User: Fold these one by one.
Assistant:
Number 1:
Amino acid sequence: MARIVQKYGGTSVGSIEKIKMVAERVIEACREGNQMVVVLSAMAGQTDGLIAMAKEINPDPDLRELDVLMSTGEQVSVALFAIALKSLGYEARSLLGFQAAIHTDDLYGKARIRDIEIDRITRNLDAGRIVIVAGFQGLNARGDITTLGRGGSDTTAVALAAALDADVCEILTDVDGVYTTDPNVYRKAQKMDFISYDEMLEMASMGAKVLEIRSVEFAKKFNVPIHVRSTFSKERGTMVIAEIKDMEKVAVSGVAYNKNEARITIRKVPDQPGVASRLFDPVFKAGIVVDMIVQNTSQDGFTDLTFTVPKGDFYKTMKLVSDVGKDVGAETVLGDEDIAKVSIIGVGMRVHAGVAKKMFSALAEKNINIIMISTSEIKISCIIEEKYTELAVRVLHDTFGLNHAKEEIL
Ligand code: ADP
Ligand code: ASP
Ligand code: MG
């Protein structure tokens, strides 16, 4: 008997018909003798709809109350799902985040899971029930509802799989695995049979939303095997696992893009010790995650500092940085929301030379200007104008031979 955590995303439970269909799939796994814990997202579009309603009242809604509101999407789907299972004659129990004892920190809207008390879930499993847990939500030390950030049901699922020592965490979604790039952007994308935690981590943090980044962090830390597969077929999907040897054979194994970042430049910052720390202090205190940071070489005692933040934090960051910019004597603060980040990822980059040069030439050939560059051991990212995103993804996919990725590895 295996213990399986399955997570179904928004499109997979997007209608009553789909809920009934997914319930049958879970029952089948249960009949095969497995203990099933099912994590659900809100029905497709629900979370966006709830946020839009709040923003009709106030474009910058109170974060505590926004979490109370957003968490209702998952409350609806788990209840409907449990009703479906019970109607089919199966014992089931829906649990909201607080009932499943998913404890988080205090950051409303992007809370981190601290620990999960599994007793209530295991008691229900031992009683032969299918347990259905609302994804994306938890409870902080004050007893308030928190949410884990967009796409956070993946994190709920992997964290539960780790806490419950599950045999596998299956992420069931509207694509049949992890591809070399978003298959909805480039039809030549290839499905991967395996991907390492490190590569998946980079793909996810570079914008491949098929897995939410924190879910991959959890999986790596607790060695939880993830199986990404389609809700609508039984085909094997992609296994996300620790590194395997042959992975270094190819330099680049995936291309990702992210249209959700904005760029902020602080012009003519006095080039003195402590200034960068002062500029970023209010940004970090506000819990805003800064991605790329580039500082130019100093001229006449001044320098320019450019960085990127999530688009949702753009206006708030502009305000914070404009205020502190004045205090430190910077000239101006400029912002640009029409940017995108394209990245190439591969553990093989560690042993292959000339990858960056090949990337820059490919973009240059299509006349795509590179605004910022950042690298890590296994990825290179370029900020470009947003309108070139799809073109850049396709040209990089072609340049690094990913259209035939499988044949090259074999
Ligand atoms: P869910 O609602 O099931 O959580 P998401 O929409 O969050 O699903 O994630 C699945 C989507 O991720 C796919 O529809 C696809 O467009 C996108 N995606 C982006 N990059 C990739 C990739 N490299 N491989 C597979 N899917 C990707
Ligand atoms: N419903 C949440 C969202 O839309 C969480 C999730 O789907 O994973 O972001
Ligand atoms: Mg998702």
Number 2:
Amino acid sequence: MATAIPSLDLDPFDPVVLADPFASHTGLREAGPVVFLPRIGCFAMARHAEVQAALKDFETYVSGRGVGLADFSREEPWRPPSLLLEADPPLHDRTRNLMNRVASLASLRKIMPEWQAKADALVARLVGQGPFDAVPELAEAFPLSVFPDLIGLRKAGREHLIPYGTIAFNAFGPRNALLVEAMEAAQAATAWVAESCKRENLRPGGWGMQVYEAADRGECTQAEAERLVRSFLTAGVDTTVNGIAAALHAFVQFPDEWQRLRADPSLVKRAVEESLRWGGTVQTFFRTTSRAAEIAGCHIPEGSKVLLFLAAANRDPRRWEDPDRFAITRQASGHVGFGFGIHQCLGQMVARMEAEAVLGAMIPRVAEIREAGPVRRRLNNTLHAIDALPVELVPA
Ligand code: OVM
């Protein structure tokens, strides 16, 4: 006997839902291990156990038909598919192994002192300056000061990186006003990114050029290298910007946790992990069933789109105690903020290192992170993004 799958009258891409996605998570989790969303014609999972199980079973829940609402076997994707995110084995494993060697922990460790010095200088400038908007001046400024140089991008036009990320993350949802507006606003960004991925526009020594050098060794074609470099540019900026913003926002809302971190700076890695669990930067990703699936006694037919609520899984009370509480001393590992399984975030160490550098710079210098105005959201079909975060950093 199959367990009946309840229907829920929820459009996850409705602006009201996007403005406060956490409000809909309880209903999604409590309706059942699998729910059907007739408003978008997709199945959905929001509990940690099922989200993780689906991510683990990459042969049933495939990525090659797109990880957004569009089924690439029926609809043409808005750009040539990513050779990592929107690919399945064996192609995925070949490209992923190549990219893992480029985006290595060893190369990141080498540059961490340089990143820390940059974060220290940036924070030193912002402390005691009165109120400022932490989104442009810190959450955007820091990643933009380190990541494009890591890839080896040309200097001119880097302002296109965030608008391009906005398009890409909106494109996982329906063709709603958010996507149409992002595309219209950032036509030039798409062209700039395409140009920037070309070999002649990448600096020697950067991660971008290293992908081409892997192509020279026969690990992929030159055309594949160009598209793999695009993955760095698409996935590496908007995500870390909003990850840092979410961490700052968490400490604004839980000031005692900032004092706890200042009292024991060795908690910084835990704090970053907890903000990844709590913050919900990447809210959702889809998979498509390659065959009939059974999960928690529920039957999902072949060819179904399944929406996985990563951020809801990260606050599932079945998995975490008092999940809505931001608590830096908790064991947050096991969160699915970076996904799980073969597609788990390639750049996760970049994201962690950037956040650690920012918090590390703030710990000795900032006695208090004071709210200086209302937080404003930037609605996006995939990201839980912050548009404005007015704060004042009280000097230590
Ligand atoms: C990609 C990619 C990977 C992860 C996330 C993402 C837009 C894109 O390979 O292009 O979001």
